[in-house]
Amino acid sequence: MDRWLRAAVAVLALLTGCAETPAAPAIPVPARHPGTSVPVADPLYPGHGNPGLDVLHYDLDLAWDPRAGTLTGTATLRIRPTVDAASVRLDFQPYEMIEVEVDGVAVPAGVTGEKLTVPVAVTRDRPVTLVVGYRGRPRTTPMPSHRTDTEPLGLTVTRDGGLWTMQEPYGAYTWYPANDHPSDEALYDIAVTVPAGWTAIAGGTPAGVDGRTFRYTSADPVATYLQTLAVGRYRKLTATGPGGVPLTYWYRPGVDERLLPALRKSPSHLSFLVERFGPYPFPTGGVVLVDSASAMETQQMITMGGRVRADRFDQDLLHEFAHQWFGNSVTLTHWADLWLNEGWAMYAQLLYDQSLDGYSDDELEKRLRERDAAPRKRLGPPAWAKPGYFAESNVYLCPAAMLKEVHDRLGDRRFFALATAWVQTQRNTQQDRASFTTFVNRQTGEDFTALIDAWLDSPTTPA
Description:
By secondary structure, the protein is an alpha+beta fold. It has helices at about 1-15, 260-265, 265-275, 315-320, 340-355, 360-380, 395-425, 435-445, 450-455; strands spanning about 55-65, 70-80, 90, 95-100, 105, 110, 115-120, 130-135, 155, 165, 185-195, 200, 205-210, 215-220, 230, 235-240, 245-250, 285-290, 295, 300-305, 330, 430. It contains 9 helices and 22 strands. Strand 9 and strand 10 (about 165) form a beta hairpin.
C-alpha cells in the first residue's frame, strides 16, 4: 500500500499545476468567496434548487423543544444572485414566518408549494443578506426510490422527541430555507439550543458549547444534502485518525453499545482510504448514530442508522468514509451523475472487502460482472437515471465495475495516482461526467472515452 501512496503523491505533485476546475462568474469582491458555486438546474428534480441563486453562507440559529415538538429558527443567508430577478426563491417547508428581512429591511414573504418567495428585486453578482425567522413542527418528504432501506427524507422526529435527518437528494428545506441542490455549496455556522441533558450534533467542526447551545462551523463548502442534524440524549467517544485528525462518535446509551466496536474501527478505515486516495480532506470527522436502517455520508459527521444490518455495518461505514473524498470533497454537479459519487465509494468498499477476504483480482472481476448484469437490465445503465429510482443498485455496482476496468488497464500505481489526483486537485469543486472523462484522459495520457461511455450507457454488461 505504501508504494501506491508514494507514487500517487509523486504524480500529484507533477499534475497539480494542470488541473482543471469549473470557472465561476466574477463577483464584485476582492477575492472569490470560498462558498461561491455555479448552480445549475437539475435534470431529474427541476422543482428543487434555484440556479439563479448562489448561497455563499448559511448561519442557522435553531432551538428544539421536544415537549412541544417545535423547531424555532433564525436563518441568515448571504446570497449572490447569478441573474437579475424580481424576487428571491428558495426551497422551504411551510413554517410559521416570524420575520423576514433583506439587508436589514423588513419585507413580506410567503411559502407556497414548498417555495419561499421574497418579493425583492436582486441584481446579478450583488450579494444580499436574507434573514428568515420561523417556527413550527418539522415534516418529512417522500423518498423518490424503491429501495427497502430508506425512510422519508428530511428532519425526522423520533418517538422520544429527538431529531435526525438524511436528505439525499433533497430535504434540507424541511428544517431551514435552502437552495436545495448539490451544485450550490456554501459555508455554514450552526447553533442549536436544546433542553438540559440533551445534545445537538451537526455537520462541520465542533465550535464549542455555550450552556445548552451547541455550535458547529464549516470552513469547507457543503452541499445541502450533506448537512446533518441530530438531537437526543447522546454520549460521546473520541479518537484520533491518520494525520492526527480528531474523530467524535455519538451514540445513544442503552441502544447503540453493540455498534461501538465497529465505530472504533474508524481510524483504520481512514488509514485504508488515505493510503489509496491521499490525505483526509477535512479538519475533523465522526459518526452519529440515529434511528434508521440506512446511512448517509454527511460531511465531517457521518449519519449511521443504528438499524443497519449488523453484517453490513462495517462495510457501510467504510463506504460512507470513502464519500468524504468522493462526493463531499469532490461533489457531483447534478443528480444524473450520482454514479460519480457512488461508483467510487462502492469500488473503495469492494477493495476493502477484498483486503479482508483475500480473494484475487480475477475473482473481484468475476463478482462485479455477475452483479452488474441484473441492475443494468432492471434499472438501466448508470447514466440513464430515472427520477423515481434514486440511488438504486445500478449507480453503485455498474460504475464500480467500470472503475475496475480502468484499474486493470492502468495497474495499481497509475490507478491510485489517478484517483489521488482527482480528489486532491479538484477539492471543493463540483464535477460531472464530461469533466471526469476529460480528467482521466489528460492525467493518464490515454483515451478512456469509449470505455467510460460503454460502461455508463450500455444496456448490457460491456465485453
